[in-house]
Amino acid sequence: MRFPISWVFGLLATLVLALPLSAATKSKDTLVIGISQFPRNFNPNIESMLAKSYVLAMTRRPLTVYGADWTLECMLCVELPNLAKGTAKRETTADGKPGIAITYTLRSDANWGDGTPITTRDVVFTWELGRNRKTGFGNLELFERITSIDVHDAKRFTLHVNKYTCEYAAMGGLELLPAHIEAPHAADPESYRVKSAYETDTTNPGLWYGPYKIAEVATGSHIVLDRNPTWWGKAPAFKRIVIKAIENTAALTASLLSGDIDYIAGELGLTTDQALAFQKRHGKTFTFQYKSGLIYEHIDLNLDSPILKDNRVRRALLHAIDRAAINQQLFQGRQPVAHGQTNPLDTVYDPNGVQYAHDPARARKLLTEAGWKTSGKSVRQNAKGDRLQLDLMTTAGNKSRELIQQVLQSQWREVGVDIRIRNEPARVFFGETVSSRKFPHMAMYAWISAPKGVPRTTLHSTQIPAKDNGWSGQNYPGFANAAMDKVLDEVEVVCEDKPNKALWRDLQRIYAEELPVLPLYFRANPFIMPKWLKGVTPTGHQFTSALWVEHWRVAP
């Protein structure tokens, strides 16, 4: 899809993109960033994709975020709701359960890019649209959790939430939409996904309210961001930011060396092994920073598959992988083995949880018990003569993942499992295959979470995407487990330290025992920057460094 832009602006953008590196760095007016994926769409509430989050971080501001120090803070609001101050109040829901009323005040100077004030009208409009299952909002559970909204004035509102949670003030998922632009497109909720101005009129300044606004989109190629004249905060140093999508990571480094790009985004650029190899050759030319964080590389298992329904098969697959060797040989020990979705860096991690050692003999025994026998053949078969063959999918062009696929393919072959590798461009893989649960067996990618982030949307049975819920939710394996549902329901609301940690231990235990997902490793993001670029602060969680883009600057 191409997005409309005036001929004059298109010509100017082309000239800027054609500038040689020397001209760009002399003026320091333009920063060119390379990322490894191109966003499938630009609506902040539809589909989850890191490439989109990274771009939108420069053009929008969430209500609340976790900062680089992992503490919650306001961005679009004035002050976090607080029980002691009365801006948060416990209440009882209509069905007699503990809920909470939380009051926010929007910044008085916050405007959309066309000058229209951001108001409570936008809050109510977004909430009403998000609750409609036909719209396909990814965070449906959040919008349904908010049962009503009291509007006090144009900037102040109270959310009535049907569950009192430990992190009640965190509302980063309430991604506001401009009612004055989107209301006509939302008249038919079922077609909103394709009729939204974020799809049909992406360069409309009224959609954006960060330091930058989207000025041009060349699908699959690049996105041009210009300063937003209605931005209320610190003026950004760069007049223009160009984000180039280079899905082949080898081409990404070539573009950095040639001067076609200035900076490879740490959140969405090279993998650790590639960055380490690049640093050996060019360590004096660039600044390197490796940020460990809540980034979980894993393999989703489609539990609708007759093969993968058997827990013995799932455990065998994990026992057959030598994850420690992958960490040492490919990543020089910088990306530790993940034994579950909870990172040791998080305060809720249980160091005594269940772990799966590399044990091919145990893997073979489990597969035999599950009815998959060798009978002298290299690939196991069941009693019907069906081969033990599984498809493994990931993002095409990501050399690290493609290398790991080959390692996994070899290690699983040793225990009699045949693996077919099928990869797709990131925008197809995330936008269609994973989000609609179209992968037949296994999908390898990463989740990025917030500190103490409860994995409700990825593990609760109510969050399984399906046609009847507009493919909302992120439980792509289709995991439905009553014990897990109970823990997820309780861990959010039991806030006393000791019982809360006990629930987190139960969550990690059930996850390890049931294995809806094969844990691989926790990633460290490599940030490769020109020495003249300062102010980029990696966070190590789902809120990217780009949310503070106005602090990026050129070294004096």
**CATH homologous superfamily of the domain at 292-524?**
Dipeptide-binding Protein, Domain 3
What's the total count of β strands? 18
Report the uncertain regions: 1-26
**Mean pLDDT, as a whole number?**
91
From the alpha carbons, calculate the radius of gyration and give it in angstroms. 24 Å
Subunit arrangement of the protein: single chain
| Secondary-structure arrangement, i.e. CATH architecture of the domain at 292-524 | Roll
Biggest sheet statistics? 5 strands, mixed
Sheet-strand content, in percent, reads: 15-25%
Distance between the termini: 41 Å
Q: Which topology of the domain at 292-524 does CATH recognise?
A: Dipeptide-binding Protein, domain 3
CATH class term of the domain at 292-524 = Alpha Beta
Shape category:
globular
Q: Could you give the order of strands across the largest sheet? A: 8-9-10-1-11
Number of helices: 18
Helix/strand structural class:
alpha+beta
State the helical fraction: 25-40%
